[in-house]
Amino acid sequence: MLQNNAGANGVKSRHFGTNGSFGKGRQLTHVIQREHSDKETGEGIEPPPKRRLPRGVPDKVAARWEGYKTIVHLDMDAFFAAVEQQHNPALRNKPVIIGGLPGYRGVVSTCSYEARVYGVKSGMPSAEAYRLCPHGIFMQTDGHKYTWVSVEILSLLKQFSPTVEPFSIDEAFIDISGIWQRYGSPADMVNSIKDAIKGKTGLTCSAGIGPNKMIAKMSSGMDKPDGLTEVHPERVPAFLENLPVEAVWGIGKATGKALEKVGIDTVGELAKTDRSLLKRLFGVAGLALHEIANGVGDTEVTPFYQKPNEKSIGHETTLPKDTASVEILTANLRMLSERVGRRMRKSGFEARRVTLKFRYADFSTFTRAKTLSGYIRSDTAIFHQAMRLLKENKQRTDSIRLVGISVSKLRDTYNSFQEDLFRSSGESKLSCICETMDKIKDSYGDNAITYLSTMTRYV
Ligand SMILES: [Mg+2]
């Protein structure tokens, strides 16, 4: 397996140890001591003294991971707010609230722990956050800054394991199977990673260690901020037993409600429910639920250099004001197709299906899609399809609150070199323009160049 090979050869000489870094010498002694204790005691490996122990886990449990898949989930604490606080010391120890500004329509994206004390939460309307914490420091998101730090952290993680999967801008999975032994225990290795991140960026994160991604992800949220929670494979049933079903990663609100209706409240109850009953209630998804409840989950950490198997790429935006103005809708669709197109090309895809989503002021929502005869990859082609769908399907004249565009039926661009010869010259030219614009944006930022029609969206 990739993971095991990588474990043996992956992290060779560059290490960030518990106290910053330690050289080869110390690693070697470490290994020798380990073999020694193995021979002498005939028992498992004794982990070296730990500074931070995961909550509620007895010392010896940490060493019993040998032979199990060991997956780590790292989640940066209050990432956007913490980055701002690192960047500007004047913001430290203050309630920093990132996202929409009060007075405008928008939501809180992240807030510092100092703001959470007042009840401010991610996803809350900014107006409500302002009511709860009027002296909070409200700031707009600065994507470039956060991406920069995120990339720094990823490159650091790569030095610990070759199998790192970025999950979002502030989360990643790391497969440390067969690698953690160099550090003594999985918890020791994760503490070293946490220290290295802190040393390089000044930021803290919370980590979960589990036998699969689901357990790792759920445990990283158990002890925030700056926490470490380890769930050994044998403790998985006990860990899940009393959790409410909605706490499980993969079970949404709707499914949670449906389960409650049939009297299933906890994961333990779900695990004990008859599979055939679940299948009758939820179809094939019911069987998946049963597996999740029994702690069975995906262990495949996809390294960042492997392309994610994306099914669709989309963006949507809530308009600053509900509107029926064709100009404003057009400008927003232009902006969205530009973003979707850029992300699609960045991932090396082209698409054959365009979906338009629009939501009226009364929250009734429509999606309309069209599958095309050929693949497209230019912003303009996406935009034209979206406009066509809007014109064909907008029977009502009342105001629109949200618009979204997504593309699907994706395929790798490298499949299309042959076809390019026969592709309509218009789309080829447009793709060329987009690729040039992409390069400009790569060098000078996403706002460096855009379409004139995108710029009119605030008019
Ligand atoms: Mg986070």
Helix/strand layout:
Elements: H1 2-9, H2 24-41, E1 71-76, H3 79-87, E2 96-99, E3 108-111, H4 113-116, H5 126-132, E4 137-139, H6 143-158, E5 164-168, E6 171-175, H7 186-201, E7 205-210, H8 213-220, E8 228-230, H9 236-241, H10 253-261, H11 267-272, H12 275-282, H13 284-293, E9 312-323, H14 326-346, E10 349-360, E11 365-376, H15 379-393, E12 400-412, H16 417-420, H17 425-444, H18 452-455
The chain binds magnesium ion.
Magnesium ion (MG) binds at residues 75-76, 79, 170.
Describe the structure in your own words.
This protein has 459 residues and is of the alpha+beta class. The chain has 3 domains: 1-35 and 54-232, 2-Layer Sandwich (Alpha-Beta Plaits); 242-293, DNA polymerase, domain 1 (Orthogonal Bundle), CATH 1.10.150.20; 312-458, Dna Ligase, domain 1 (2-Layer Sandwich), CATH 3.30.1490.100. It is built from 18 helices and 12 strands. The protein has helices spanning 2-9, 24-41, 79-87, 113-116, 126-132, 143-158, 186-201, 213-220, 236-241, 253-261, 267-272, 275-282, 284-293, 326-346, 379-393, 417-420, 425-444, 452-455; strands spanning 71-76, 96-99, 108-111, 137-139, 164-168, 171-175, 205-210, 228-230, 312-323, 349-360, 365-376, 400-412. A hairpin with a 4-residue loop joins strand 10 (349-360) and strand 11. The radius of gyration is 25 Å and the shape is globular. Bound molecules: magnesium ion. Magnesium ion binds next to strand 1. Residues 75-76, 79, 170 line the site of magnesium ion (MG).
